[in-house]
Amino acid sequence: MAEAKAFxxxxxxxxxxxxxxxxxxxxxxxxxxxxxxxxVAPADFTAFLRSLGDSGYRxxxxxxxxxxxxxxxxARRDHAADEIGAVNTLWFEDxxxxxxxxxxxxxxxxxxxxxxxxxxxxxxxxxxxGGASRAVIHALKERGINDIRIVNRTLARAEELSRxxxxxxxxHGAGAVGxxxxxxxxxxxxxxxxxxxxxxxxxxxxxxxxxxxVTDIVYVPLETPLLAAARARGxxxxxxxxxxxxxxxxxFERWFGRKPDVTPELRRMIVxxxxxx
Length: 277
Description:
There is one protein chain. With 277 residues, the chain is an alpha/beta fold. The chain folds into two domains: 4-101 and 248-275, 3-Layer(aba) Sandwich (Rossmann fold), CATH 3.40.50.10860; 105-240, 3-Layer(aba) Sandwich (Rossmann fold), CATH 3.40.50. 38% of the residues lie in helices and 21% in strands. The strands form two sheets. The chain has a six-stranded mixed beta sheet with strand order 2-1-3-5-6-4. It has a six-stranded parallel beta sheet with strand order 9-8-7-10-11-12, sandwiched between helices. It is globular and about 55 Å long. NADP(+) binds at residues 128-132, 152-157, 217, 240. Shikimate binds at residues 16-18, 63, 88, 103, 219, 247.
């Protein structure tokens, strides 16, 4: 049987840690397979999708800026992809190219690992209304959270998401964040605030109750200003690296036939890579 091949594509793509994650699992499980990064410019992406059937690849991951184009370009999509409006994982099934979105799965699995029982914690405040927040809101709804408050600088974008996701999802401008935090059980930053070079505090956790879980989808740095401030207050915090690791699991299982484990060793390897850059 031919070597199983998969890929990640984006533009640029050299920074992607996906080859390290999947390479680790291929080695760990002794699978005869490969996973490579392919840089595809936006103008070439549709042709790239069309060529996949003859390429020998079983599928791959799609990252920025191609997730919406992949959503439009696949033959079939799963429910999560339809809800989130983007595709990050491709595979072939019955000769057709399928697309799914595993970001919401990765977000929830990260919290399952580090804050078991998180979904029973009550109202969730989501900072930001971009593509990442769509995956977060989808995951929250799937876990039965029925009070989700989107806070965004541009209120119209938050309102668009609240309409899309329907009952239990409300939209608020940035000025309302203080009062929204007073009874929140979950605070999620889905914005780029807190990333290296953008070190502003996404929200002030001093207004939060003592039982709130605070998580950030940013993982460079691992401890963002928001997480540091929440930890200083004694709150439970969960960094964003686990979301990256867990979202990779469903794709690997589809392409290589084995559901991989997100191990402490894998996390240490990726942390070392982050700190080495």
